[in-house]
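Weekly sync, protein design subgroup
Attendees: M.S., D.O., the rotation student, P.L. (late)

Item 1: inverse folding check
M.S. brought a backbone from last month's batch and wanted to see whether the design step gives back something sensible before we order anything. D.O. pointed out we never logged the input encoding, so this time it goes straight into the notes. Structure tokens as presented (337 positions):
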């Protein structure tokens, strides 16, 4: 036992323990400290109805020198309620520092419902979440939405593309635009279908497929999910396809922004579907991280997500394709202290 060891050995053991703590174990203690007051998280209770929201911890703005300031591109076709919801989510994804704008790419040429509306940027100003968001509107006249988006996306300052997504493909949105954007740009492409205003969402449910945590865009995506959760005040439930959920908790804590999240292990996509069927609520937002085919973490099941999730209780869905080909970009999203 240590009590009977010579003092030199005791000193060596103590020093080794301190070094181990410095190298990473502090993350686990931070998580335990944050979660000690939440029996709901420790027991795995799942407030599927969205009632009794979890508390959020304020993270002091101590990182002004580490500007994380994405420019987000959002195509706008008809300027209706769906576009307003999408733009509100894009504002929530804007990070805490910097002045890069949300670029509204207004595409003139597609048929709309004929209503005479104020510009979407003016209507966004009525939403508190957009108060401090820089917004720039650009208009292009074309009937080819996909071509307009692909021409605009490679702009050097564009960091993230947000588009509308309709898993059922009922003709209310152009699925080809999102698919082409994923295939032809390495940018993160976040596709949303929002069945209600973001202010009425109850819980964010995040799906992390196997091995996606090894992808170079993983930490950026986690950062953005945390940002969305914090801005919309949504508690998070994370579903992983591994039994070792502590591994994912640790990775989650490595990323800036403190929010509380509970983690659940599921063995398969079928079990995930059954779990969501039993626990989820129509007011939930279901977000799945995705990668492009042949990238680390690719799973053929990802190509079936649209059909698999379309009829589950969460009526609002998102499919978030991670950034490709920029490993060094990840470093800015990790904690430095």
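Designed sequence read out in the meeting:
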């Amino acid at each position: 036992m240590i009590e009977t060891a010579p003092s030199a050995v005791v000193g060596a053991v103590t020093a080794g323990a301190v070094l181990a703590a410095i190298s990473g174990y502090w993350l686990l203690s931070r998580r335990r400290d944050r979660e000690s007051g939440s029996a709901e998280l420790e027991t795995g209770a799942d407030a599927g109805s969205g009632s009794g929201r979890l508390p959020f911890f304020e993270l002091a703005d101590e990182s002004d020198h580490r500007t994380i300031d994405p420019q987000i591109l959002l195509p706008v076709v008809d300027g209706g309620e769906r576009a307003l919801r999408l733009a509100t989510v894009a504002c929530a994804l804007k990070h805490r520092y910097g002045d890069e704008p949300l670029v509204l790419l207004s595409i003139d040429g597609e048929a709309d419902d004929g209503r005479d509306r104020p510009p979407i940027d003016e209507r966004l100003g009525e939403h508190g979440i957009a108060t401090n968001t820089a917004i720039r509107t650009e208009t292009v006249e074309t009937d080819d939405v996909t071509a307009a988006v692909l021409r605009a996306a490679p702009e050097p300052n564009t960091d993230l593309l947000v588009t509308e997504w309709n898993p059922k493909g009922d003709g209310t949105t152009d699925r080809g635009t999102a698919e082409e954007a994923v295939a032809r740009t390495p940018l993160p492409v976040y596709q949303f279908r929002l069945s209600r205003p973001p202010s009425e969402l109850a819980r964010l449910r995040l799906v992390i497929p196997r091995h996606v945590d090894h992808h170079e865009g993983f930490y950026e995506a986690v950062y953005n999910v945390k940002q969305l959760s914090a801005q919309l005040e949504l508690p998070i439930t994370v579903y992983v396809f591994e039994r070792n959920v502590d591994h994912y908790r640790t990775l989650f804590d490595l990323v800036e922004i403190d929010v509380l999240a509970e983690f659940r292990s599921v063995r398969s996509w079928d079990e995930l579907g059954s779990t969501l069927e039993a626990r989820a609520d129509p007011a939930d937002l279901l977000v799945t991280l995705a990668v492009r085919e042949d990238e680390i973490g690719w799973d053929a099941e990802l190509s079936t997500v649209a059909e698999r999730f379309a009829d589950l209780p969460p009526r609002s869905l998102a499919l978030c394709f991670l950034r490709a080909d920029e490993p060094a970009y990840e470093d800015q999203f990790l904690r430095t202290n």
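Discussion: The chain is about 35% helix and 20% strand. Residues 7-35 form the longest helix (29 residues).
Action: P.L. to compare against the previous round before Friday.
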